[in-house]
Amino acid sequence: MILLNSPANPTGVTAGQEELEAVAQLAAQHNVALVSDEIYSRFFYDGPFVSPATYNDQTIVIDGFSKSHAMTGWRVGFVHGPREIISTMLKLQQYSFVCAPQPAQWGALRAMDVSLDQQISDYRRKRDLIYDGLSDCYEMTKPGGAFYLFPKAPIESGAEFVEQAIGRGLLIIPGNIFSNQDTHFRISFAAPDETLKRGIEVLRSMAR
Fold first, then answer.
1. Peptide bond before 7: cis, by omega within 30 degrees of 0?
2. Are 149 and 71 members of one domain?
3. pLDDT digits (tens, 9 = 90+) for 114-155
4. How many other CB atoms are found less than 10 A from the CB of residue 133?
5. The domain spanning residue 145 has which CATH number?
6. CA 130, CA 170: separation in Å to the nearest integer?
7. 3-state secondary structure string across 58-105
8. Cβ atoms of residues 62 and 38 within 8 Å
9. Domain shared by 66 and 141, yes or no
10. 9, 88, 157, 158: least buried by Cβ within 10 Å?
């Protein structure tokens, strides 16, 4: 099985169209299941979102409303893919749980009619605000999606750097909770502009 997550947490990095096509074709060529986690697919800032399902109709696509419509905790999502796999998933679902609460389902149905253009534009602006405010003093890749940045800490330990930041009133997440490496930290820019600006000031002062 190949599990693909683009845009990704914690980096916000997005796979290019050629990369997605290559992975999709590789999975098809070797008859390997390809699972595409597209929970951040609406948060795509530098061009149209492309799913590997475009190049491989056997792709299993997982998506939901928790990120795009701030329905975290409602546990309403969806999956689409090959008929035989979806049929088997339905059998497992029937013996595992009943269904998502009806009010949450009605909320998700209504959410599908809501335009997210303004929200995505705001997140793109926030991405640019924090990247432009920190890229000259931190090593990082500009995220193409989601709402995270993953800078390298200016000291040896990312976890230690996070503790110092928390001591100055800034909550960021150590990168070692996502991998075995303790070199980076994660920033979420899903916050008001004033909070982001204060965070930029603290991080700039800590980089000196």
1. yes
2. no
3. 999 999 999 999 999 999 999 999 999 999 999 999 999 999
4. 17
5. 3.90.1150.10
6. 14
7. CCEEEEECCCCCCCCCCCCEEEECCHHHHHHHHHHHHCCCCCCCHHHH
8. yes
9. no
10. 88
